[in-house]
Write a structure and sequence with these properties.
Helices cover 30% and strands 17% of the residues. It is of the alpha/beta class and 281 residues long. The longest helix has 15 residues, at 113-127. The protein is globular, with a radius of gyration of 18 Å.
Length: 281
């Protein structure tokens, strides 16, 4: 059975009532009241950073060859880690394995360092399904905020090769085009609680290693839209599910709308769902 965006949506929908920008509660252990899983902890997938190039893989018990979702944490590219993955209980109950990854933060590497980490992480997942007990041919991505950006990057970049293409890519409130984030927030009449993205001290400026305002080319190089434009015309994109709070004061809903429109206009997008959540920040 193909792993579709709607299947993942069913697993994560129960979380939408919580604050979207927050990680969920600590997951239940395999001996706790929640569904059982086998945890493969601290698996190294690259050698650029001993603590950041690692992942945890949770495999549901009693499920033969389950599909797997790669969970990419948020945190503005400056904080966050693989612990307490969002929706773990929901995924395990749905019979879906979870790979929760660390990647190098912006104080350790600037873009495209994070892109390199993503590609290696997905390659590891693809190579170790038989050994760890999941179906390495059915892989999806899921992330929120900065993790949503990286989930979009993964879904697009990996589509260039049918051998690496994902089954689905799920994004919650992702920043998409850094150079337009301030304008997009102003356009919806909201004020960014994190301050101006254009400033040198912003999370996005730290990611690209320079002030967004003064270096739009660097900002565009980190955009999923740039990867999408460079994708071969024959590439088939996976299903995408994009979710965004209409009143988000961290990342304007126009940001995710930019990706939605770009995907909508491109031939080869298998399935596309966009959910704007009224009243949600």
């Amino acid at each position: 059975m193909p792993l579709s965006a709607r299947l993942i949506f069913a697993a994560v929908l129960a979380l939408s009532g919580a604050a979207l920008a927050q990680d969920g509660p600590p997951p239940e252990g395999r001996n706790g009241p929640g569904p059982g899983y086998v945890l493969h902890a601290d698996l190294p997938y690259a050698d650029r950073s001993a603590d950041r190039n690692v992942m945890d893989i949770y495999v549901p018990e009693g499920v033969e060859n389950p599909p797997i979702v790669v969970r990419i944490h948020g945190g503005g590219f400056i904080v966050g880690d693989k612990s307490n993955p969002d929706g773990l209980d929901m995924f395990i109950r749905a019979g879906i394995a979870v790979a929760s990854i660390n990647y190098r933060l912006s104080d350790q590497a600037v873009w495209p360092g994070q892109f390199d980490d993503l590609m290696d992480a997905f390659a590891f997942v693809r190579a170790n399904g038989d050994a760890l007990g999941y179906d390495e041919t059915r892989v999806a991505s899921f992330g929120a905020s900065a993790g949503g950006h990286l989930s979009a990057v993964s879904g697009i970049a990996l589509a260039a090769d049918p051998a690496t293409a994902l089954e689905a890519s799920v994004l919650w409130f992702p920043p998409i085009l850094f150079s337009e984030m301030d304008a997009d927030m102003a356009a919806v009449g909201l004020t960014a609680v994190t301050g101006s993205t254009d400033d040198a001290g912003s999370a996005e400026s730290k990611l690209i290693g320079a002030a967004v305002r003064e270096n739009p080319a660097l900002a565009e190089a980190a955009s999923p839209l740039t990867l999408l434009a460079a994708l071969p015309a024959e590439a088939v994109l996976p299903p995408f599910l994009i979710m965004h709070g209409a009143e988000d004061t961290n990342i304007s809903r126009i940001q995710s709308g930019r990706l939605f429109m770009a995907l909508l206009s491109r031939p080869g997008t298998a399935e596309l769902d966009y959910s704007l959540l009224p009243g949600s920040g």
